[in-house]
Amino acid sequence: MRWLWVSPKGTSSLRSRRVYLLAFSCKRKLCPSCSKKRQIAQGEFLINEVLEQVSHRHVVMSIPKRLRHCFYYRRELLAKLSKLAYESVFECLKIAAEEKDVYGASVNVLHTWGSLLDWHPHVHLLVAWGVFYPDESYKGVSNIPVESIREVFEHKVFNMLLREGAISDDVVENIRSWHHSGFHTWVGPLVSCLEKKRLECLGQYQSRGLVAHDRLQIAPGAQETKGELIYDEADDEENSKVTLIGDKVIKRHGGNKRVWDPLSFLADLTTHIPKHRSKTTLYYGYYSNKKRGMRKKKASSDDLIVLAKSSEEGPQLSKSHWARMIKKVYEVDPLECPNCHQAMRIISCIDQGNIIYKILTHLGLLGKDYGSGENPEQSARAPP
Prior knowledge:
Layout: E1 2-8, E2 20-25, H1 32-50, E3 56-62, H2 65-73, H3 77-97, E4 105-113, E5 119-128, E6 130-132, E7 138-140, H4 146-164, H5 169-176, E8 184-187, H6 196-206, E9 216-219, E10 222-225, E11 228-231, E12 241-250, E13 255-260, H7 262-270, E14 281-285, H8 289-297, H9 301-319, H10 321-330, E15 344-350, H11 353-363
Antiparallel strand pairs: 1-2, 1-15, 3-5, 3-8, 4-5, 4-14, 6-7, 9-12, 10-11, 12-13
């Protein structure tokens, strides 16, 4: 957790001002506030830096349950699954456009969780529904049969898992003998380049967090009776339950709800945290980091002057970036003084735990249950 000392502008002496302590970031994977901030930042980044003025579609591609364990124990295969999803769509687009030396364009986000936190690896794609030529021109294509994309994706996934030794030929033959193989592809409606708000929302949806905060119900001694939750009055930590309400019925759990004890919930939640330095958002084709970097180098001298001017204004914008994100999430300006409603300036940033503890103790913000010692490790309970 980081804290800021902030003070209203307008007077020269700190003694004549009101000074506030403001918590603004914890930068954790499971924090709902930080997840929402990452969603908004990703949506703005796609609109301003990545997406071209062309039409896009939202595509979701998933695999059968029998193959999901391969990606649970070998997480490095998830990146290959994302690449195969892009290649499957791009090959169909290239055939529909009747072109050869062209590029596709896609922003892929890997998700490993279902609506009730089951292990369910799948890929969300925001695809430019057409092809780009080497001279940066673009050609859109008409609708492509969804079944064609699914068949290409199925073929590529089987070949990849066979090369990696994750499955055998018998597994492939058995799955292909099913009436429904378990591979699924969903293609959303065409989104025009003029619908920037809708594209930004799609980018935010791709980068959403593991669990929506409003779908969680945490209470001591929760018991489910005839579809309703009944909470015990006693605060018994051993019997306390965590309930997650999904958006659809899952046969495995017998409904759209799933109940854990707190430790089991955290165990299932942490299985979806990606490994250190592993990427969950990947850019392919015309939207790849390499292609975008090459296009910036080819910018004209006029564009370079504009970029230089914008870089001079950049630090001023970046200083208020976090405050703008909070205002966009909570619709409240954190740098507005609650008394005079004037803009406040940042005095200092504090990220040392012992200093934060001393300040909170001095201000009486820790509460009586936290403990009376000056060392947080010696206190009875952890800080809120």
